[in-house]
Amino acid sequence: MKPVDKFGNPIYLKIYEKMLGFGRVLTKNGYVESIKKPNLFYRRAEDGTVYFADMRGTDMVPIWEDPSPLFYWKFPEHVPQWKQRRLIRRELEELPILRLSFYEESEPDGLMFEGGDGYCLVCGKDFQDEGEFCSTLCKEAFADLGKDVCRVCGKLMDYGEAIRHHLEYADEKSIIVCRSCHSKIHRGSKLPKLKPLDSRGKECLK
What we know:
The chain is an alpha+beta fold. It has a domain at 1-115. It contains 5 helices and 8 strands. It is globular, with a radius of gyration of 18 Å.
């Protein structure tokens, strides 16, 4: 890694030290640093997907404003969008140091703006298709409910605010939580029993 951004601007020591820490976490989780582009990490998955964790900064968000790695990806053409969203959410849960761009998360054309990940929002069934409900019955049940409830704080959540948090990846065990509680689970220490477990039953590395 180098203490300069992608434009050649120097990065202050405190910010660079944070970046080095993020780099160590990424390396432990299978990412490697690009030889030609310092501070850009990537991981090539078995299905051909390439995940990127970029700490070079952008025009919109200089690296000293937010040194956490910008997360983006390149999926093979045959991977449907519902599966892309599922894989992205899984990567974000395993590596909460990553951040999404404003476009992907907040713009209507962004992949993560809305859209299901193949899990029914009502019953949790893994139906592996586009949409957010496994059946008309579940869709009608959701419309009757109108809102979902965070399983941690009990808050009533509006549509789109709910996040599926994985408890165990091996058995696909998950609960619905609000964005605030999801952040507390991954970044804090007050909810240790809700930390996600990997396929070996061990807490996922942060």
